[in-house]
Specification:
Blueprint lengths: L2 H18 L12 H8 L3 H13 L3 E4 L3 E4 L9 H12 L1 H8 L17 H4 L1 H8 L17 H13 L9 E4 L2 H12 L5 E6 L3 H9 L3 E8 L2 E2 L1 H11 L3 E5 L12 H14 L2 E5 L13 H5 L4 E6 L11 E4 L2 H15 L4 H11 L3 H26 L3 E2 L8 E5 L6 H10 L5 E2 L14 E5 L6 H12 L7
Parallel strand pairs: 4-5, 4-7, 7-8, 8-9
Antiparallel strand pairs: 1-2, 3-10, 5-6, 9-10, 11-12, 12-14, 13-14
Helix pairs in contact: 1-3, 2-3, 4-10, 9-10, 9-14, 11-12
Keywords: DNA-binding, Pyridoxal phosphate, Transcription, Transcription regulation
Organism: Paramesorhizobium deserti
Family: In the C-terminal section; belongs to the class-I pyridoxal-phosphate-dependent aminotransferase family.
Length: about 475
């Protein structure tokens, strides 16, 4: 926990104790942000973080224009699992913003616009399947490993990527996040240490936090994870797993090079740890792109894919390809936790993949992404912002903010104007370090002029002045 996080938690605990002991009864107004910052000797941002945690835990409610007030609802004593859940949700606040709030401008969105994906290829398939024209619905529990014809199709698709895997060694899941959850449940226990990309995939951070797993961040650059950092931290920590996204990395947009891939597998072999490779954008990337699973042939790599980023976030279908032993374990874990996944949805995805239009959809989507990337670079230059990697893959750019600009505070200011930003701190283990702060931007939305106006206004004036 970083220093600022620790201070925020200390303030949260102090106020919560006063409420629990009746010192601050229902209706009590908390100090203003400015007054609390002076009282506790911290920044206003730290007080905001503490008040947000009190709200999340049910102690306090905000009243527009009036301040923060004690609710009078006494939260139940937390057990260790509940406490970890609160911490995990604090980390994954960004995900909640994506799912629940209706922002007008969505620079921080993790998904592509709907018109780029689902409207292109899904409507006719959903209509045909729902009407029963293809006779695909059966009212019975199916095998927990997933719809066999879809696994056969995936086996052929992965062969194009030089990953040789039989259909029975592919497990269908409810998206990539479900795949991570199964792997964590099966192979990790509270107190274990894992390695992850930093910056990296923040929902994964939240899952690991919830499970009581300690994360050690491996620095991520334009060519992939830093091999020296990986070797040093793997040896020092004794970690048994390394979670990484090889291609179209979220949030930086960078992709693994072949040489770096060889380095990672050599280190994993020497220090005896497994690699969980996330290939969320696999269908958008060339089959020849550097994939750890292709080089390793699933001996030490567990390969995770999904269709959420390519077809629709509502089609919760993903998969795990791994060795027979690992798949057998994960099938049992899936069966014990959710019985099986949706055969209906798996049939829809199978129908889409086997339709001749799917490859045309990918080609069209790739064209839109590339065009948006080029446009985003030009626009950001005019705004005085710079992506860390200009020639990115996928939907994201990792953009450095000017010195002294706080990404969390900038995100809060943007939200007041219905502009959704993704602050870089949530993508970094421990919330980031040093003076550099970043935003993850979705290239599909960078062209919105309301974002341009906001950036020019905010970054041209002394940051920290009242909006």
């Amino acid at each position: 926990m970083s220093g600022e996080e620790s201070k925020a938690e200390q303030i949260t605990a102090r106020i919560a104790l006063s409420i629990d002991e009746g010192v601050m009864p229902k209706g009590t107004r908390l100090r203003s942000l400015r007054a609390a910052a002076a009282t506790y000797g911290v920044s206003k941002n730290t007080v905001v973080e503490a008040y947000d945690r009190l709200i999340a835990r049910g102690y306090v409610e905000p009243r527009h224009g009036a301040g923060y007030f004690v609710t009078g609802i006494r939260p139940r004593t937390e057990d260790p699992v509940t406490a970890r859940l609160v911490e995990a949700v604090d980390i994954a606040t960004l995900l909640r913003e994506q799912l629940e709030h209706s922002f007008t401008v969505r620079l921080g969105e993790g998904r592509p616009p709907a018109e780029w994906v689902e409207r292109s290829v899904l409507k006719s398939h959903i209509r045909n399947i729902a009407s029963g024209q293809r006779g695909l619905f059966e009212h019975a529990y199916e095998s927990p490993i997933g719809f066999e014809p879809l696994r056969e199709t995936l086996s052929r698709m992965l062969a194009e990527r030089s990953i040789a895997v039989r259909p029975e060694h592919i497990l269908l899941t409810l998206g990539a996040n479900h795949a991570f959850d199964l792997i964590i449940r099966q192979y990790l226990r509270a107190g274990d240490v894992v390695l992850t990309d930093t910056p990296g995939y923040y929902p994964l951070f939240a899952k690991l936090k919830l499970a009581g797993i300690r994360m050690v961040g491996v620095q991520r650059g334009a060519e992939g994870p830093d091999p020296d950092d990986l070797a040093r931290k793997a040896q020092a920590s004794g970690a048994r797993f390394f979670f990484t996204q090889s291609l179209a990395h979220n949030p930086t947009g960078g992709s693994l090079t072949l040489g770096r891939a060889h380095d990672i597998l050599r280190i994993a072999e020497n220090l005896d740890f497994m690699v969980v490779e996330d290939d969320a954008f696999g269908d958008l990337m060339p089959p020849s792109a550097a994939r750890l699973a292709a080089l390793d042939q699933l001996r030490r790599v567990i390969y995770v894919g999904t269709f959420a980023k390519i077809l629709s976030a509502s089609l919760r279908v993903g998969y795990v390809a791994a060795s027979p032993e690992i798949i057998a374990h994960l099938v049992n874990m899936k069966m014990l936790t959710i019985v099986n996944s949706s055969g209906y949805v798996e049939r829809i995805v199978h129908a889409v993949l086997n339709d001749g239009h799917y490859r045309h959809h990918l080609k069209r989507l790739n064209g839109r992404v590339k065009e948006a990337q080029l446009s985003a670079v030009r626009i950001l230059r005019k705004l005085g912002l710079r992506p860390e990697i200009e020639e990115t893959d996928g939907y994201y750019m990792w953009v450095a903010l000017p010195q002294g600009v706080d990404d969390i505070e900038l995100t809060r200011r943007a939200a007041r104007e219905s502009i959704f930003l993704a602050p870089g701190s949530v993508f970094e283990i421990g919330g980031g370090s040093g003076d550099r702060r970043f935003l993850r931007l979705n290239v599909a939305y960078v062209s919105d002029t309301r974002f341009h106006e906001f950036v020019r206004r905010e970054l041209a004036s002394p940051f920290g002045a009242p909006p």
